[in-house]
Amino acid sequence: MAILVVLLSILLLVFLVAYLRLNTFIAFLVVCLFMGLALRMKIADITQSVQTGIGKTLGSLVIIIVFGSMLGKLVAESGAAQRIANGLMHVFGRKYVQWSLMLTGFIVGIPLFYNIGFVLMVPLIFTVAARTKLPAVYLGIPMLASLSVTHGYLPPHPSPTALVGTFHANMGITLLLGMVVAIPSIILAGPVFSRFLKKYTQEPAPLFNIAALPEEQLPSMLNSILAALLPVILLAGTALLKLVVAPGSVCFKVATWLGDPVIVMLLAVFNGIYILGLRRGTPVKKVMSLLDEAIRDVSVIILIIGGSGALTQMLLDSNVSKVIETGFRNMHMNPLLLAWSIAALIRVSVGSATVAGLTTAGIVAPIVASSSINPSLMVLATGAGSLMFSHVNDGGFWMFKEYFNLSVKDTFKTWTVMETIVSVVGLGVCLLLSLFV
């Protein structure tokens, strides 16, 4: 009976979000109420679970998510992303221009939230296409594959960051393993797959050809990369350092302090404010207004994550999680494959990678605690599943179609296939890594 209630709750969530187009946060709350009543919980207990779930989830995440949005805004508005793209294209040359765009998307995609990264990077793709006389789709797929992978796999993006907390994984280790999973996923979905896309020669929609900033207004290459990658440097560096120094030593304590995600993102934002803003003569008022805009940009995502936390708490307080754990354990299914499958199913149904990842985490989290599977791999497998088969219920599908001036059929053949490759390859690498870690 409990399993049936959970299945009906997920179907209700899909119906409310995908069919009725109800606000996702409200949809989560309606589903929590439905689940609680169906499981015969008291109204007071239901509302208490909702409040507890939102508080527990956002308490540890909201700082990281907001700081991540601030850093992304600074990288975007300062021209740092444009500088990175220009510099890499100069290094790689015309022959390997796809690889330069792919690497640009990966570097810029780490601090930038997906929608911001998409809107920012697509005009750069069109500029390169006009300069090289190569098809925009052929050049764009590798960069957008990078943006998609960083969005689904790597902290400090909202869904991976939330999954790290839910699965009790180490953020630094997750980032390192995420890099290992990301590289083959991006290469196969980007430069390799795009070899078959040279026939898509449609001119991009003129509306989206945005003028680039003048060269003299851009920050230096070193400052641009340092600002964008400082979270990666600190998280990955401290995680590696803690593996080689003695626990309890001064170096270990310093690495623990510097590797705390809140400290990492705070330092990254301060660094961005200085080298991308104040140092270049940008008024303090202008820099602070950008940070205010960043908070508004991410407010909807914060509410969605809070709603998913409420649903997770409902599963715990109603004891359904124990029933789910027993049921799935009896299936003798690899937890990584299970998490990927559930996330993929929800992604295809709802369209949102964030909703798919967070909803899946609430369902399969009890299994992680009772299994020997590496929790960081669970984060990555769930993230891979949340990217599966983007289609007409996903905003990214329509953004790609309109920006690149494609038909719906051609968008399926390009964008949807790229997203599917990213997802399937990510699962495969996670399963392979599970043999060693």
TrEMBL record:
The keyword Transport applies. Keywords: Cell membrane, Membrane, Transmembrane, Transmembrane helix, Transport. InterPro entries: Glcn_transporter. Its main location: membrane. It is found in: Cell membrane. GO terms for molecular function: gluconate transmembrane transporter activity. GO terms for cellular component: plasma membrane. It is a multi-pass membrane protein. It holds the Pfam family GntP_permease. The chain crosses the membrane at residues 6-37, 58-76, 96-129, 136-154, 174-193, 225-245, 257-277, 298-316, 336-365, 377-400, 412-436. It comes from the Bacteria. The keyword Cell membrane applies. Belongs to the GntP permease family. This is Gluconate transporter.
